[in-house]
Design a protein that fits this description.
The protein is α+β, with helices and mostly antiparallel strands and about 140 residues long. It is built from 5 helices and 5 strands. A hairpin with a 5-residue loop joins strand 3 (about 95-100) and strand 4 (about 105-110). The chain binds zinc ion (ZN) (2 copies).
Length: about 140
């Protein structure tokens, strides 16, 4: 059964897991590969993707695995809808998110675009912005 492995060039996911005290398991590898393939994925979407390779995985396994992967810095989550958190791989360039409320399209935006806002919040409010967790809701051009 073909399934893609995390890219060899990625920050070494094996090292990251081991350093966090976690074993390398096929499930963890499958879930990480699914997030990397899907780009932005909820646990449900990850489950649908990994099910094609392994029926032994259920939703609570996916939730737990995503938590493990996030705790060792391999994936991040953001809240792109009222539904479950959405995960993306840290191998994607650092970005924040634009989400269209109508078509639910997600666009990844370079943090430089929000650099002046981040600098302002840091300077005026002594607040360090976590841009990777930032989501801006609105409407895309096609939907307006
Ligand atoms: Zn993202
Ligand atoms: Zn739209």
């Amino acid at each position: 059964m073909p399934h893609s492995h995390p890219h060899e060039s990625d920050p070494d996911w094996r090292t990251a897991l081991r350093a966090g005290g976690f074993r390398l398991t096929p499930q963890r590898e499958l879930v990480l590969a699914a997030v990397q393939e899907l780009g932005h994925a909820t646990p449900d979407e990850v489950l649908a993707q990994v099910r094609s390779a392994s029926m032994a995985i259920n939703l609570s396994t996916v939730y737990r695995t995503l938590e493990v992967l996030e705790s060792v810095g391999l994936v991040r989550h953001a809240h792109l809808s009222d539904r479950a958190s959405t995960y993306h791989s840290v191998t994607e360039r650092e970005h924040f998110h634009l989400v269209c409320r109508k078509c639910e399209r997600v666009e990844s935006v370079d943090p430089m675009v929000a650099a002046s806002l981040a600098a302002l919040l840091e300077g005026e409010h002594n607040f360090a912005v976590d841009l990777g967790h930032l989501v801006v809701f609105g409407q895309c051009l096609e939907c307006t």
